[in-house]
Amino acid sequence: MRAWMDRGMLRGRIHGRSLLVLVVVAALVSVAAVWQFGALRDEHDPDLAEADTPGGPQFTAAAETTSASAPASAPESPESSAASPSGDPTTSAAAATTSASAADAGPECTASLSLDTEWSSSISVAVSVANTGAEPIDGWEILLALDGMEVTAAWGLEHLEGDRYGDIMFNAVIAPGESVDPSFSADVEDGWVLPETVPCTPA
């Protein structure tokens, strides 16, 4: 009886160990099958393999973040969208000022002096009054403020007051580019100097 029980226990142990071995073998076969299936799937469809890797979702998220952060188009600034002025205000203002100055200038004249005769204490001076403008002059005035000189007589000049001398009837009108030639005499002091020009003003 005891021998029969020992044989039964031995058989039970053998069956238990066999069952454990079968379970381990089945697990290994399953793992091998899964690995082989994954390898075949990666070989036939690489995109699925890349999608399964951890780097795939991170790369996609980074790309989406970059696309979202980049603006569709730069907004147009109000300064650039506004119409630019057609001309330079400074240049236009300068041109207008020049035109206005030329219009206001009107007739112009110059008065040149040249020594005609010199004596010990007096001189005779020729004057040339010229119209340098574009319009006729109808009357003019010169200023004979001469250091070391005192006008004593004049020809073709009318003494107005002080150092001011003006035209007389026959030489009042001067056409553009023309001139008239009055003269005067003056007493001089030591060291006198005759200027080349004196102020001239159209009437």
* CATH architecture assignment name of the largest domain: Sandwich
For the secondary structure, the number of strands is: 12
Strand content: 25-35%
Mean pLDDT: 75
CATH topology description of the largest domain: Immunoglobulin-like
Proportion of residues in helical segments: 40-55%
CATH class of the largest domain: Mainly Beta
Task: Please tag this protein with its features.
Immunoglobulin-like; single chain; four-stranded antiparallel β-sheet; alpha+beta; polysaccharide binding; 5 helices; CBM2_carb-bd_dom_sf; Cellulose binding domain-containing protein; hydrolase activity, hydrolyzing O-glycosyl compounds; 27% strand
Short description:
This protein has five helices and twelve strands. It has 203 residues and is an alpha+beta fold. InterPro entries: CBD2 (IPR001919), CBM2/CBM3_carb-bd_dom_sf (IPR008965), CBM2_carb-bd_dom_sf (IPR012291).
Characterization of this structure:
It contains 5 helices and 12 strands. The protein is α+β, with helices and mostly antiparallel strands and 203 residues long. It folds into 2 domains: 2-67; 107-202, Immunoglobulin-like (Sandwich). The strands form 3 sheets. Strands 1, 2, 5, 9, 10 and 11 form a 6-stranded antiparallel sheet that branches. A 4-stranded antiparallel sheet has the order 6-7-4-12, with no helix packed on it. A two-stranded antiparallel ribbon has the order 3-8. A hairpin with a 3-residue loop joins β1 and β2 (122-131). This is Cellulose binding domain-containing protein.
